[in-house]
Amino acid sequence: MGALLLFLTIALFPLAALSTFLFSRQTMVRIERDIRKDGLARPSGWDDLGLRLHWYAFALMGSGKGKWAQSNEPFIDVAMIRRYATRADRIRAAAFLISSYLFVFTGISTALTVDF
Questions:
Q1: Is 93 helix (H, G, I), strand (E, B) or coil?
Q2: How far, in Å, CA of 55 to CA of 81, rounded?
Q3: Which UniProt keywords apply (predicted)?
Q4: C-beta of residue 92 within 8 angstroms of C-beta of residue 42
Q5: CB contact set of 79 (below 8 Å; sequence gap of 6+)
């Protein structure tokens, strides 16, 4: 079991890294550039820990109902982000969230089960 988890962790790393890069560069940067072109302020004024990437992804994935991606998120303007998003942005958000959280889950599971 430990060997399988280790293999999955190693296999998921490039996928998580690629999806993070694509989401940040092709979705987040484009949305913020379009917002600036329209003369509006950036939807998130604070990003000291790099969490803005996750906030954007949750905003694009959620419907505004439930605990994920509520429309009244205090750190970002969810409605503005959704207004500038495309279907491809939502797909990249899903790929980013799924691959990164699977990588973290398998990494933690591997660390807890494999003797190094």
A1: helix
A2: 10
A3: Membrane, Transmembrane, Transmembrane helix
A4: no
A5: 71
Torsion (CA) 103, 73, 65, 62 in degrees, nearest 10? -40
> CA 115, CA 67: separation in Å to the nearest integer?
37
Amino acid identity of residue 13, one-letter, is F
CB atoms within 10 A of CB 111: 12
Dihedral in degrees, nearest 10, Cα atoms 99, 101, 102, 108: 140
pLDDT at 51: 80
For 77-103, write each residue's pLDDT tens digit.
Answer: 888 899 999 999 999 999 999 999 999
Q: Which amino acid is at 111?
A: A
23-35 tens-digit pLDDT: 999 999 999 999 9
* Alpha carbons 100 and 43: distance in angstroms, whole number: 23
Domain residue spans in the chain? 12-113
